[in-house]
Amino acid sequence: MENRNWTIGESVAVKPGVTDPDTGSDIGSWQGRISAIIAGEALILTIQWDSLTLKSMPVALIAWCEEEGASWSEMNLLAEEVEPVAARDTEDDVAATIAELEPQYSWLYLGGEQGQRIQQIVNRAQGHDEFAVFQTWHAYLEEHLVVPFAATVAEYQRGPVRQGDRVTVMGITFLDETYGTIVAVKHKHGVYELPLCDLKAPNADTEILQLADDYAVWFANR
Question: pTM for this structure?
Fold first, then answer.
């Protein structure tokens, strides 16, 4: 089988007993299409998984790939590890499935507990457009952000409040389509409204520090 002429777009299945070269997990019977052919001492095929394989892929594997910066939608395998089969779906089905799955795991690339916490909040959104996620964060902050707490202005601001100033966050006021969750802060010159993402709370309770930092990291990398 190794000597046959493989073609781009051809559907293949992984032979029984073959394992993922990175994780060692069993991938026998997984199916996909050849998206690249790499000639060398051993013929290597890049397999883009079909929609059925993607939908049944273990969550832990997708999470591992995101954290390691590896692709979970395709894999390089030796030509001898696969065999030709009939296609089970279309390339449009694959694209739609990837588009559906990507937002559910895209923040895990941050690694560790922070990536998991951010992903859990993002996954609460009804839809994956940015403002839907803004609304989800805003509602979560309204429920969990305990005020008042001391903070430092971490970003440049127009007006009397300057970068580096100490303020006291008094409460959440509204949601802005551009700057996200806006909070009321008490400053030596008065009370002002600032984006929460522009504040740091290094001396706040652990829960407040963690939540404010998670939100700022999401906002900066959205």
Answer: 0.75
d(CA 51, CA 5) in angstroms, rounded, equals 25
CB of 12 closer than 8 Å to CB of 31: yes
* Statement: residue 23 has pLDDT above 80: yes
Phi, psi of 17 (to 5 degrees): 90, -10
pLDDT digits (tens, 9 = 90+) for 96-149: 999 989 888 889 888 789 998 999 999 999 877 889 999 999 999 999 999 999
User: Tokens in use for 25?
Assistant: 């997990």
The owner of tokens 């507990």 is 113
Please give the mean pLDDT across all residues of the chain: 93
Question: Each residue of 100-112: pLDDT tens digit?
Answer: 898 888 898 887 8
Burial class (CB in 10 A: 0-12, 13-18, 19+), 86: exposed
